[in-house]
């Protein structure tokens, strides 16, 4: 236990980006306090398109809404949506992959053929099509991206399960009467969880970008919801006259994605057995 703890603490990159990730999460949690009680959806046309000043640190948008407050509240929606998406993809993909690898036969054939069909289409294009059919909302955007992303985790989990499915200790456990549930929980899942956790951690930034892309295209969060991708969409018509409308939400996405990508990379360096 102490050795494992030391591995995490001795990795300076992991410690640094863990602290930064916690700060980003705390900003999202305490957005109402940091925003000074400003309502991110309340506009005042008399204050429309005001450049950053002492009253409006990040300026205002075309509806007179405070960009600083909207960026802070946008952290809540963007982070929460991304974490829900990553968790959903991780659970669904891992469960289906483990079942496919353990049972094989028709179970494996059905799950993997569905996965192959999903992979045959460009991910973001298929997500746009699904979100378009379901209707524009953040919930539907999460569902759309989850539908096109789970095959990656399923195929990975399946390949890891197949490596241990026919080993002697697994056959011994079957002979001694271990139930199917026990086999899956004690022997199959532990052999996949580390690699898939690393994958999920490194995918946080990418999935945040995909959600922001769908919102930017109009298939995700809808105005006046303060979400970073939709804020970029609202500000693109004022790119030259009011660049702050895109600069601040763009910086928020950039910084957050970099932090979680670097956190995932350092976590991979710690947990990846090939690094030992």
Describe this structure in words.
The chain has 276 residues and is mainly alpha-helical. The protein has 12 helices and no strands. The protein has helices at 2-10, 12-29, 31-34, 67-103, 105-119, 123-134, 138-165, 168-175, 180-188, 190-216, 228-235, 244-271. Helix 2 (12-29) crosses helix 12, helix 4 (67-103) packs parallel to helix 12 and helix 10 packs parallel to helix 11. The longest helix has 37 residues, at 67-103. It starts with a helix and ends in a 5-residue tail after the last helix.
What's this model, at a glance?
The chain has 276 residues and is mainly α. The chain has helices spanning 2-10, 12-29, 31-34, 67-103, 105-119, 123-134, 138-165, 168-175, 180-188, 190-216, 228-235, 244-271.
Largest sheet composition:
none
The helix-and-strand class reads mainly alpha
Low-confidence stretches: none
Q: What is the helix fraction of residues, given as a range?
A: over 70%
Give the termini distance in whole angstroms: 16 Å
Query: Care to count the β-strands?
Result: 0
> What amount of the residues lies in strands?
under 5%
Number of separate helices:
12
Radius of gyration: 22 Å
Global shape: elongated
